[in-house]
Amino acid sequence: MTRFALRGILGRKLRTVLTALAIVLGVAMVSGTFVLTDSIAKAFDAIFTEQYRGTDAVVTGKSAFVLTNNNTTAQPSFDESLLAKVRGLPDVRAALGGVAAQAHLIGKNGKAIVFGGAPNLGFSVDPSQPAFNSLSLVDGTWPKDSEVVVDRSTASKKHLHVGDTIGVQAQGPVVQFRISGLVKFGAVSTIGGATLAGFDLASAQSLFDKRGKLDDIRIAAKAGVSPGKLVAEVQEILPPETRVRSGSSQATSDAKDTNGFITFLQTFLLAFGGIALFVGSFVIANSLSITIAQRMREFATLRTLGASRRQVLASVIVEALVMGVVASLVGLFLGLALAKGLFKLFDVVGFTLPNNGLTFETRTIVVALAVGIVITLLASLRPAFRATRVPPIAAVREGAVLPPGRFARFRVVGAIATAALGFAGLLLGLFGHGLGTKGVLVLMGLGALLIFIGVALFASRLVRPLAVVANPVARWTVFILSVLAWPLFALPFWLLRFGAWGSSSTGKRALAFVGGAVLNPLLLVVALAMIVRKAATRWNPEWPAEFPGVLADHSATSIGSENSQRNPQRTASTAAALMIGLALVTLVATLAAGIIKPFEDAVNKIFTSDYAITAQNNFDPIPVSAARAAASTPGIDAIASVRGGDGRAFGSTIQVSAVDRSIGRVITIDWKNGSNTVFEALGANGAFVDDGYAKKHKLSVGSPIALLTPKGETLHLVLKGIFKPPTGGSPFGAVTISSSAFDAHYDQPQNLFSFVAMRGGVTDANTVALTNALKSFPNAKAATRDQFVKNQISFLKNILNILYVLLALSVVVSLFGIVNTLVLTVFERTREIGMLRAIGLTRRQTRQMIRHESVITALIGAVLGIILGLILGGLLTARVKEIVFVVPVTQLIVFTIASIFVGIVAAIFPARRAARLSPLEALHYE
Amino acid sequence: MSSAGGSPLSGAGSTTTEAVVVARDLTRTFGAGDTAVQALRGVSVDIEAGKLTAVMGPSGSGKSTLMHILAGLDKPTSGTVELAGTEITTLGDNDLTKLRRQHIGFIFQFFNLLPILDARENVLLPLTIAGEKPEDGWFDELIGQVGLGDRLKHRPAELSGGQQQRVAIARALVSRPTVVFADEPTGNLDSSTSGEILELLRKSVETYGQTTVMVTHDARAAAMADRILLLADGVIVRELPRSDAHEILMAIEELNRR
Fold it and tell me: Crossing angle for the helix pair A362-388 and A13-51, nearest 10 degrees?
């Protein structure tokens, strides 16, 4: 029986390949994810290990609490006198003090050099102590006063050379440096898109506004001294605002954030691999069901020859097993290519990841193969059991139908119950209390899974009504798309063929050929391939070909529409695969719209002045001096900034913000208690909070708030006002104090935004004036309100695009599902197509017939998916306060058109096969 | 036509003006080299208008191949076929399809109805495909003739074999084709139903002058024809005028003895 199963696979190569593709893609995603995240982890590992090369212990500043990771607050620096004390310790062989901070290199165009969201690292280097140096020089010399070394990948991307002068901006305005050399970081080929700028210690201290201070001291122990002993020794002389760790534990601590990020990325990407595999399992189950229905005679014959039910079952399962193994193996290796693609994808959307070569772990192989094989087997179970129900008598009976499964009559009830259970799980996950994040996500995921299965099972009931609705939609959209594609594809292709082998004068043919080539040069390749094939083989292209039209033939499409309804179960299963992808895409679009809309409303409400000054990348904090420079712009009416930092109050770490006295002149907020005078009355110890925070901690005007700063000081604040933020949020943290108080207690205060009101409002002259005033701060830019909104949501848009690309994978899987179903259907209806061709259906009509069926199937999937996506989106937005429910109409139209496109593309190959059937052979096909 | 006199057996005879299908020197070889099979070895035939022509012969005699070539479903290895004044052996697929639409009706052994369409839609299918409407009254008359009046809303699965073949006959006639080709039209029916179907075919020839070519190995079916061509080994070996089943069987016996 096993041999029989293998023969079955070999005898139906095309079907097997098409079915297996669904698994290949899913497994590739899983294996690609592992390869990608393992590679990133290894690269980071190399970076962190390299960074503390030769270092036995590290002294750093210590904040009073664990800082958040949003760049606004740095670890506090400490006095450089500590270095001499450390050097004086008996077990210390060498010690090196250094400073580090953000430092933007300024490109030749006057703009800061930024690669995506990657950091711009500035630090001191000391070539006199090479043991600690993780950089190696590839060109030039180490920096002296007023010199800088730059990493070679930035240099080559931006055409920088040794001897060039380059601007660097850190804490103050741009300072010019001479590039003394190019460096690379250890053995790591790329450290993401980060830029490196190394200076001698004194230059770095002055550039970073850290004169007389250090950020870290690296210590090497004398021979025979353990890091533990060294750490203990250093510990004794440390002032309270510093700490010492061994080199390796410092590296581990540095890597913590990164590891969290990698774990997140891995889970995130695996989820999409899982989705693709889930969709793939639909495709496999459906393809096998169809194949088994078609092979009924074969199974029945086997049964008459004495095969037991168990043997029939085994033969189907073995077939699935072999397919699963081969597909998983292919997918595993495709994953390597996919990992490279993902690196590129993240790079393109401005999220460069460090890469030190691809890593292929054993775990990747085991998990990818296991997942692919198990899913294929699971998907094959139902069809396999149905195969066992074929009675031997079907071998001799014409037109026997597969008996319905034992549970067929419970199908509708089962479908509804499954979907209901899914919704229950989802709602419990969303609104239930006391569940951890993990619990919520697992419940929601399982709920969504069950909903999809339930709806897919029920969908066969919806095929007929949906097909009736989809029919005219499909006809008209395909017509419109054909009209658009006509001058680009249909016409030039016809012209090229006419030019190649039409029967007309040479002049006319040459003209047609050139015309076709001009209209779409790409088709020239196809035409040339056809000419070569005609010359080299016995193949003869179809000619004369009908002059291309755009209007779909009504009779062909109506047969196609009828066909889509004749086996609702099959259409439903095929459409369900697409439905899943579309539901998730719709959900993502709905959530994004639900975030963007209130954000825009909030900005429009709060930001009532003319310009905002932000960093080039829209979210980094900018030096306070930038706002000071902007304040001197001629024509300025008012300028006020919002600073940000970390703080700790009521036992949790919070965002602290600070505002200038005049902020009331540039923004507008709704006060619950108080008015704009609060801004001016904040003083040294005043604060205001939003109503949510006030309610949570039962605060009212006059309440005391104890705020711990990173340096360990406690500010005793008094609540002066409470405001109501709009749904879309506000620029303020949980607690807001005055800029003067903030600057007194936070090192290196930085602005998040500065808002500017100009005389005359937004005018070209004002924009130019403001931009000029910011010239020495290339990392700062001025934006109007619309630009500001657009900039702020651009990050979200990038994430959205990544999600779309990843979800596109599952849509591609469902596309293969449609192709597969259509191929099998064409195969099944060969005789019917032969008859239609005999009584006058042209090849084009045949193609249109198949295409229409495909588009209707795709549209059914799209409609179900969009509705389901909106329902899921509605539930989620009901749960999350900050997101409102907005129907993203434009996107939904785009998705629908994209689905129709999927239908058209899926039909290309099956339709060609159908059109090429010789009516004679088709009629005699058994 | 009552005698074989005017009909060419060798291709040398005159072409009568009534001939709607004129085939000359048809040969058809399947495969190549050692495995090549010559299905037709030089057949010339005129199909006359308004007559029912039966093509008979044992399996492998080439009768189906001849019909397929005459109907433009297959191309001869050599020779020509003129249908309704058009040389069809050189036509491209598109023109051939349109020619079939306009001039040819088909009746198949296995009916070949579309299961998704009801009887009425199946009958109208050739016109639907061509984007045409039936002439006034013609559809109703046709349905009356084939006796399907109360079955029009039924799908093929709900019809008996005989009823399905009636639908197929109506479908072949609905576009008033120049010639109808019937391939073993009774091959899949019991004998009493076969009789009814043959009566129906005969009636369409007599009432509407519908030129019909029928491939069959059933002598009873051939007995309905105005003219019977006997094929063996790829050539027309004998031609009979209208004969009864017994005469036809005798003629076949005679051939077999030779």
Answer: 160
Q: Report which of A412, A283, A463 is spatially closest to residue A859, judged by C-alpha positions.
A: A463
**A172: Cβ contacts below 8 Å, ≥ 6 apart:** A207, A209, A623, A625
Overall average pLDDT of the A328-357 stretch: 82
B116–A836 CB contact, under 8 Å: no
Show residues of chain A in contact with B129, CB under 8 Å: 555-556, 836, 839-841, 845
End-to-end CA distance of chain A: 24
Instruction: Check if B27 contacts A (Cβ < 8 Å).
Output: no
Q: What is the dihedral of CA B240, B241, B244, B249, to 10 degrees?
A: 0
- Work out the minimum CA distance from A13 to partner chain B, whole angstroms: 25
A400 CB near a chain B CB, below 8 Å? no
Q: Say yes or no: A848 contacts chain B, CB-CB below 8 A.
A: no
Separation CA A783–CA A622 (nearest Å): 14
pLDDT tens per residue, range A512-561:
888 888 888 888 888 888 888 888 888 777 676 777 777 778 888 888 88
For residue A112, what are the β-bridge partners? A106
ipTM over 0.85: no
Sign of CA dihedral B55, B61, B65, B66: negative
Residues of A in contact with B105 (CB under 8 A): 839
Nearest C-alpha in A relative to B171: A839
pLDDT band at A191 (very low <50, low <70, confident <90, very high): low
Q: Does B132 touch chain A (CB under 8 A)?
A: no
Q: Using only C-alpha atoms, what is the Rg of chain B?
A: 18
All structural domains of chain B: 19-242 (3.40.50.300)
- Restricting to B residues 62-81, those with a Cβ less than 8 Å away from any Cβ of A are 68, 71, 73-74
Residue A205: count of CB within 10 angstroms of its CB: 22
- What is each CA distance from A836 to A189, A803, A829, A848, in whole angstroms? 63, 44, 11, 13
Question: Model confidence at A584, in pLDDT bands (50, 70, 90)?
Answer: very high
Is the separation of the CB atoms in A125 and A181 below 8 Å? no
**How far is A699 from A687, CA to CA, in rounded Å?**
12
Give me the torsion for CA of A859, A862, A867, A868, rounded to 10°: 140
The tokens describing A849, both together, are 């017939």
Beta strands B78-83 and B179-183: pairing type? Answer: unpaired
Which residue in chain A has the smallest CA separation from B128? A555
Q: Are the Cβ atoms of B92 and A832 closer than 8 angstroms?
A: no
Domains of chain A by residue range: 1-51+256-402, 52-255, 411-461, 481-551, 552-607+785-926, 621-778
Q: CB A839 to CB B106 under 8 A?
A: yes
Is the pLDDT at B6 greater than 60? The verdict is: no
**Whole-number Å distance between alpha carbons of A697 and A695:** 5
- The strand order across the sheet containing A216-221 reads A92-98, A216-221, A57-61, A242-246
Alpha-carbon dihedral A184, A76, A63, A100, rounded to 10 degrees:
0
Say how far apart CA B210 and CA B204 lie, in whole Å: 6
By the 8 A CB rule, do A243 and A77 touch?
no
Q: What pLDDT is stored for residue A298 in this prediction?
A: 79
* A797 part of contact set with chain B, CB < 8 Å: no
B235 has a pLDDT exceeding 90: yes
Nearest to A492 by CA among A548, A535, A533, A550: A548
Report pTM.
0.81
Instruction: Quote the mean pLDDT of chain A.
Output: 86
What lies within 8 Å, CB to CB, of B43 at 6+ separation is B23, B25, B26, B27, B62, B66, B79, B231, B234, B235, B236
Contact B106 A838 (CB under 8 A): yes
